[in-house]
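In this section we walk through a basic example: taking a raw amino acid sequence and producing a predicted 3D structure, encoded as discrete structure tokens. The instruction is simple. Fold the sequence below.
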Amino acid sequence: MTPAEELTLVIGATGTTGSRVVAQLAAAGRRVRAAGRRASPVEGADAVRFDWEDPTSFAGALEGVDRVYLIPPLGAPDPAAVMLPFLRQARAAGVRRAVLLSSSAIPAGGPAVGQVHQALPGLFSEWAVLRPSWFMQNFTGDHAHARTVRADGTILTAAAEGRVGFVDADDIAAVAVHALTATRAPNADLIITGPTALSYGEVAEILTQVTGRRVTHRQLTYEQLRDRLTADMPAEFAAMLAGMDRAIAEGAEDRTTDTVERLTGRPPRGFRAFAEREAARLRV
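The resulting token sequence is shown next.
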């Protein structure tokens, strides 16, 4: 199959990584179908309605598709329950390659999307699981950190002094596009980080320097963070997210990898460069 004949379905096509994957695929002249619950128009792609909770939307989204970029249903405590039936249907419909967005904090067989990760190699002969560290975009837009930075100049975590290899969503998308389009699929679990691991205190210092507005890191306990998150999401999911912060405090995310440069040919963007690029949005 030639690139002109390939058709990639991007689920979550208006989201943080999905929108970037669509844009990069379209810029490379690839055929893209952009899937979302509202079938919102996306430049460079054909839009289609897709809803994880509505299996009747699966067939139309999959028609003619041979590869798929998978964003799990947001906030679902058991994404495998809805994703695995879709993936079996996708295989039957002719999809050969699947690229799944997971998290550096969740291994194969782990909680939530870790169950989908474990199943993926048994469903498709061509696959990749992207396991990025925490997004730099968590400090812009509508993310909780972005909201508290704007509201009162604080970042609230239970991560203590633990470090994270924060990564730009543009770099995650570039790895996803490689995984979707390379002649040979990675068939691998890919940990994706930025070039440097930083503590939230160091992030706050960079944000202060770039924006000219004082930003500080306020350290919470696991229980304080869990209870704060429970106000906005199911208790089980809140406990999982708070547990990820506790793991950061214990050093679980204090690492960097060469994945971005090895697969894309260019180094990942650093956090200061990201903050300088996004300075106007960080000051809002």
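Looking at the output, two observations stand out. DSSP finds twelve helices and eleven strands in the chain. Residues 11 and 119 are 18 Å apart (CA to CA). In the next section we compare this with other chains.
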